[in-house]
Amino acid sequence: MKKLPLLLTGGLMLAGMASCVNAGELAGNTEGAQVIRVEKNRGRIDALNDIVYSQVKSTVAVRQLHMSLLVPRNGDLKPAIIYFPGGGFTSAAWNKFIEMRMALATAGFVVAAAEYRTVPDTFPAPVIDGKAAVRYLREHAAEYGIDPSRIGVLGDSAGGYMAQMLALTNGDKTFDRGDNPAQSSDVQAAATLYGISNLLNIGEGFPQAIQKVHQSPAVTEALLVHGSAFRDWPGATIDSDPQKALAASPMGHISGKKPPFLIMHGSADTLVSPVQSQQLYRALKKEGNPADYVLLAGAEHGDDSWYQKPVIERVVNWFKATLGAPKAAATAEKDKNANL
């Protein structure tokens, strides 16, 4: 019988029956069937949605905060990454950036995506929520196969602000409130994509008309720090209290030893000034902290540039280098249903 040529498509090796196996040995085979051999070079990933990681109590209600998880199905001890979505401090839709999250999960990371409180809630509410998400993962590390000593954070835009704040306030108990208080909220690595590092100069270098918008008491960074106008109080601009604004900014927590940072920004960003990432990188290096800064030439704020393979691979490889690879299970025969 003449052998058919091999064809590689989508990771599957296709071949004629004569080049695969003896047709008579295959149950279910019949004349005209196409026989393929599949290389098992990747495992399954389980998606767990709408996990309540924290309950925030107010005087009139209790709000549940949610996260989703992507968990590689194996018995390995895995590093974890929490993704915080952007949304201009007005929304935190945690189902975003599935391309990045799936790439990280395929690389062996447990990947959480967490919502957090936004305007009209004010600082430090979002940071308190982010730290609660980290503590939740540590509390449930055994359940999901997570190595609690290797947790990183990732965020874009306002989510980048979240990642920065969590990493820069390691060891600061000011923001540790709520559930699982016995667990640490420290993180071991942070990646920020076109993130906000200083609420006082988000529009630096932009045209005056845009910078004027950032001086309004109605702009979201002012609402985050000062709250909205109410009764006889007209609200306040972000620079009306620079000390308060800096305390609510990553740049206000830059001194001392910090975990590794990956900082990425687009040179054509017209929403969050590239100065935000530039100043963060310079400040971290001045303090002697490890930081990588990647400027995407021509990339805009959250445009399709950020979903391309080279960008996603750079983030994945950076987390591999900083957090390390999953550690194989101690037993030779792994539970195939582990971490379900």
Automatic annotation (TrEMBL):
Asked if the record carries the keyword Hydrolase, the reply is yes
Q: Which PANTHER family match?
A: AB HYDROLASE SUPERFAMILY PROTEIN C4A8.06C (PTHR48081), ALPHA_BETA HYDROLASE (PTHR48081:SF13)
Recorded protein name is Alpha/beta hydrolase
What domain of life does the native source organism fall in?
A: Bacteria
Signal sequence bounds: 1-23
Annotated Gene Ontology MF terms? hydrolase activity
Keyword Ligase part of the UniProt annotation: no
The UniProt keyword set, sorted, is: Hydrolase, Signal
Pfam families per the record?
Answer: BD-FAE
All copies of domain BD-FAE-like, residue ranges: 72-284
